[in-house]
Amino acid sequence: MTSQKFTRLASVSLVGALLSTPASAERVLEEVIVTATKRAQSVNDIPVAVSAYGADQLEQSGIRDVSEVTSVSPSLDYGSTESSASGNLSMRGIGTLGTDPGLESSVGVFIDGVYRNRSGVAIDELGQVERIEVLRGPQGTLFGRNTSAGLIHVITKGPNLEEPEGYVGLTAGNYDLKRFEGGISGPIKEGVLAGRLDTVITQRDGYLEDINSDETYNDRDRYMLRGQLAFEPSDRLATRFIVDYSKREEKCCGAPTSQQATGPQNVNNLTLNNSNDRALDSNDDPYDHNIAVTSGREIADEAEQWGVSAEVNYDFDAFQLVSITAYREWETDIIGDTIDFSGADLFYWDEDAPQNRQFETFSQEFRAQGNWEHGRWLVGAIYSDETLSTEYTARYGADLNNYAIGFFGQPTYAFLTQNNNFIAGDGVNDEGEQVSKSMAIFTQEDFDLSDQLMLTVGLRYTREEKDIELTTRSNFSANGNPCLGVATNPSAPAAARTIICGISALSQPLLADGTYTADKDDSELTGTVKLAYTLENGTLLFASAATGFKAGGFNQTRLSVNPLAPTGDNLGFEPETVTTYELGFKTFLLNQTMSLNGTVFQSTFEDYQLGQFTGVTLETVSVDEVESNGAELEATWLATDELTVNAGAVYTDNRYPDDSNIDQRAPTSDGNKRAGERLGALWSATAGVTWNQSISETLGASFHIDARYRDDSFSNSSLDQDFAQDSFVLVNGRIGVGDLAKNWSVELWGRNLTDEEYTQVELDPPPIQGTGGNGRIGAFVGEPRTYGITARKNF
After folding, report:
1. 279: number of CA atoms within 13 Å, CB side?
2. Which residue among 158, 298, 357, 476 is least crowded, i.e. fewest CB within 10 A of its CB?
3. C-alpha atoms less than 13 angstroms from C-alpha of 531 in its C-beta half-sphere
4. In angstroms, how far is the first alpha carbon of the chain from the final one?
């Protein structure tokens, strides 16, 4: 369905319903309270482009982690590559997809007020959630760096100080899905001290069956445990302590072939060391779930994290003081055939020394806020200390040498001196440690210029210090350095040097070995100015200007090191800044049975951080400017006491300017090729209908369906037509029965009910981008249709 047809259909349906349904004076939408301004306020009273999704809506849509919020938020997108830890979020089409952990997200994720280091760190089971807030546009004044495109704030359900409560949920589904969730809460001392414990266990087989290993990939195996204490000894003091632990042990993520080239670089045309008779060809259909996914080597993705936080709120009458203290650790290991995704055994992550990443983070935030005669004030300060440790051991596979001979031909390969070859098991090891310290002070004031007119002014000063030490080592057998062999042969043509050393880009051997150190000290003053006017009927009109800041950093592998002049400075990339202007409105219609909110926006990103594929991995480079223009509209309508309709749409035109010049440091950069091109989908839209109906004095039935439309886009940052993704629609649904007191329920549910075929990310694997890679384009495909049954008991 085209975007025009989708828009016309939605408009006709909505207008027709408005004209045909009388409004009831007794039926009104419930007020939605959010903390988008760091204080509890009605979502329709604040000049912020924010959406809030409550527990019931999240449950009806089957949302279990942050990545699935895209089902209800049209402005939000998610994509994942070699592991779930590398997943990245984008807002209004802006966000950087990259696997390098030195790259920080443009969309910040906060859970109970605590920042998560990267988007992938936040992709875990959430357990019981009170609400999820999605804030669009720069939010740096109050929330800090790395929110230049927006943020997601998850507020989990807290302890019950008044009475005991609990729940148990069991789910079974296709792909042998098994899920258990349960929790209990209640007062230890009524009204003063209460506890809460939640846990989730999820297991599911993968939907990609690898014919080379008889394993299934893209499965789920997750565990989450969260404990809380709430202590409120007086009306002045309220505290909340949280301890959480989660673990993933999954076989993720496979990328079967979606397209093939016809030249000599195609692995199917080569004579391989294929003693296991591996199948390489997936018939260009990545959605045939019984296909070649690996070269026979295992793919595994393991992640473990835990954290503690303490939030203290104290009321001094004249002002309130808030303190949030947190410490978190996160670690992931990635092994196996997730480098070239070719089906041939070209490169692999060492199983005995996997790709390892670790974060250790401490943060402390203080805020003081209060009211004055004509407004509200807030001041605060935050400090964070983050250590990122990385280790990569990548090795040459058994097929690489024969692949090189077939690729370049024996005459070219003969230029190698001393019979230098790509010897299986040889490779490289990189170890790095990056220490980041961030300090900020901020303030935001609301001035009530009249009963209807409010001016908001905010400022934030951020200073970010980063230091990195990267040690790179090569492990080559005798005559096992083909790049060095061809480079030292004066009779070898320049093309041979480029090609042979291009395949060796995995290592840039010997010339790049060493220890590299570098440091960065960035500071930025950001802020916001907003003017809001409330009409007599309660409609809020607002205009705003805001700036945002995303920290610069360092690539965490040798791929950024210039082998001819290697220094630690080669690793760095610049901070990203944004200036955004918005005009918006928020209103109620039909006697407050409908809310309608809209925003138009214009953003300019400078030094936009781009995850660019170099032929082996995604390296972060800087683009001088990206322009973003668009509009968004969302509505909620309580059509009857039993029927609720939600809808939203966003139009985003994001482009590199015509004179844009991509950073040429990356040796495989395609330079100005993308100038003037559009990033992301032009249209995205969501719609949902929920119907609840009593069927007896004690029983009720429920029905829910939602859909998300995404326009034509590209599944790779190169914006090459090979990576064009057609528009698609994802449909989810749920039908159930339960008692009216909500003590129990049984539901049948499904996600991607139409079994839509789409890709999250596609890539042109190594060895050399721009030459057709290995002749294959690998696709990280979206999940197929899943369905199941859930039984739940509340007590």
Report:
1. 16
2. 298
3. 4
4. 45
Going by their DSSP bridges, the two strands 290-291 and 208-210 should be labelled as parallel
Distances (CA, A) of 612 to 19, 338, 430, 716: 50, 17, 20, 9
Residues 6+ apart with CB under 8 A from 752: 730, 731, 732, 782, 783, 784, 785, 786
Query: Domain tally for the chain?
Result: 1
The torsion angles phi and psi of 129, rounded to 5 degrees, stand at -125, 135
- Which candidate, 790, 786, 699, places its Cα nearest to that of 743? 699
Q: From CA 681, how far away is CA 728, in angstroms rounded?
A: 11
CA 232 – CA 112 distance, rounded (Å) = 18
Residue with tokens 């995205």: 684
What are the helix (H) ranges across 298-349?
A: none
Domain interval for residue 776 = 3-794
d(CA 666, CA 8): 44
**In terms of Cα–Cα distance, which of 498, 618, 505, 486 is closest to 561?**
505
Return the bridge partners of 114, or none.
111
How does pLDDT run across 132-169, given as a tens digit for each residue?
Answer: 999 999 998 999 878 989 999 999 999 999 999 999 99
From the CB of residue 733, how many other CB atoms can be counted at a distance below 10 Å?
20
Phi, psi angle pair for 143, to nearest 5°: -110, -15
CATH number at residue 760: 2.40.170.20
Rounded to the nearest 10 degrees, what angle do helices 494-503 and 400-413 cross at?
170
Q: Render 553-617 in DSSP notation, one character per residue.
A: EE-SSGGGS-TTS--GGGGEE--EEEEEEEEEEEEEETTTTEEEEEEEEEEEEEEEEEEEE-SSS
How many Å apart are CA 78 and CA 719, to the nearest integer? 17
Exposed (0-12), middle (13-18) or buried (19+): which is 691, by Cβ within 10 Å?
Answer: middle
pLDDT digits (tens, 9 = 90+) for 592-647: 999 999 999 999 999 888 776 554 455 677 788 888 999 999 999 999 999 999 99
Q: Give the global pTM.
A: 0.87
Per DSSP, the residues of 502-538 read HHGGGT-TTTT-EEEEEEEEEEEEEEEEEEEEE-TTS
Q: In angstroms, rounded to a whole number, what is the distance separating the alpha carbons of residues 680 and 86?
A: 19
**b/e string for 428-457 if b means 16 or more Cβ within 10 A?**
bbbbbbbbbebebebbbebeeeeeeebebe
Six-digit token string for 434: 């990056």
Rounded Cα distance, 404 and 424, in Å: 13
